[in-house]
């Protein structure tokens, strides 16, 4: 049995924690961000713990469930961890939609925090 | 008119260049990677310019066209640029498929290189 590299263990633990909190009490996600963290949510940019949590709290659904299809993790040259998630979600009783999200995790004062977060629904324009 | 932030200009120039080269002469993509660069392609990991280019060259199609649906860019705390792309591609005469790709760009010796690259087709298991 091959042990998972450390960055994969950290990345997949983060991803599991993130979606568990998002689906049950997303107002508590502030703990994973710092004041310089950036969130880009469907193209809109937010910076800092407060602005990010305000955005997440304001999302117009009361219940949501994420299902992860694939997740990848890599170490970066600056000792961070880059994670990319592909999945599906269901918000309230809307149809199931695809999504993708990327996170950059950094170790600050012995804790892993999310410094960069990007989210997009998988919507394509067949223009 | 609001100027784009520098990281957006750099990120979007990189993305435009990457897919233009990928679609016309992907064996030349080695120039954007360094020896510590990581590629995760559909869950398979490759490290270094040579291994990455060998993988890209071995992909089993002779022509490909990417179409970008959305791209997001963020500055990171270590002065890198994180980019996430959502799009569609057509390989040879296969059906059009969704994909997503994340890049981490770092400035080394006055040039922007790609240190981290993750690619996934948008395939979900409705298990």
Low-confidence stretches of chain A: none
Number of E-state strands of chain A: 6
Determine the oligomeric state from the structure: homodimer
**CATH class division of chain A:** Alpha Beta
Helix count, DSSP H or I runs of 4 or more residues of chain A? 2
Based on Cα principal axes, name the global outline of chain A: globular
The CATH architecture of chain A is Roll
Distance between the termini of chain A: 48 Å
The ordered string of helix (H) and strand (E) elements of chain A is HEEHEEEE
Keywords (chains A, B): Cytoplasm, Nucleus, Protein transport, Transport
Main location (chains A, B): cytoplasm
Subcellular location (chains A, B): Cytoplasm; Nucleus
Protein name (chains A, B): Nuclear transport factor 2
What would you note in describing this structure?
- The structure is a homodimer of 127-residue chains.
- Chain A has one domain (6-121): Nuclear Transport Factor 2, Chain: A (Roll), CATH 3.10.450.50.
- Helix content of chain A is 24%, strand content 46%.
- Chain A is built from 2 helices and 6 strands; from the N terminus they run H-E-E-H-E-E-E-E.
- Chain A has helices at residues 6-25, 49-58, and strands spanning 33-41, 44-47, 64-75, 81-91, 97-108, 111-121.
- The longest helix of chain A has 20 residues, at 6-25.
- In chain A, 35% of the residues are buried.
- Chain A binds chain B through residues 36, 38, 40, 43, 45, 69-70, 72, 74-78, 80, 82, 84, 86-88, 98, 100, 102, 104, 106, 115-116, 118, 120, 122-125, and chain B through 36, 38, 40, 43, 45, 69-70, 72, 74-78, 80, 82, 84, 86-88, 98, 100, 102, 104, 106, 115-116, 118, 120, 122-125.
- Chains A, B: It holds the Pfam family NTF2.
- Chains A, B: One of its GO terms (biological process) is protein import into nucleus.
- Chains A, B: Keywords: Cytoplasm, Nucleus, Protein transport, Transport.
- Chains A, B: Has a role in nuclear-cytoplasmic transport of proteins and mRNAs.
């Amino acid at each position: 049995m091959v042990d998972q590299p450390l960055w994969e263990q950290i990345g997949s633990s983060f991803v599991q924690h993130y979606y568990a909190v998002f689906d049950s009490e997303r107002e508590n996600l502030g703990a994973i961000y710092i004041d310089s963290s950036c969130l880009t949510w469907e193209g809109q940019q937010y910076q800092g713990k407060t602005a990010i949590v305000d955005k997440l709290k304001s999302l117009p659904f009361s219940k949501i469930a994420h299902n992860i299809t694939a997740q990848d993790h890599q170490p970066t040259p600056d000792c961070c961890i880059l994670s990319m998630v592909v999945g599906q979600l269901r918000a309230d009783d809307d149809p199931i939609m695809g999504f993708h999200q990327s996170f950059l995790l950094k170790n600050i004062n012995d804790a892993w925090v999310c410094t960069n977060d990007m989210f997009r629904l998988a919507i394509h324009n067949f223009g």
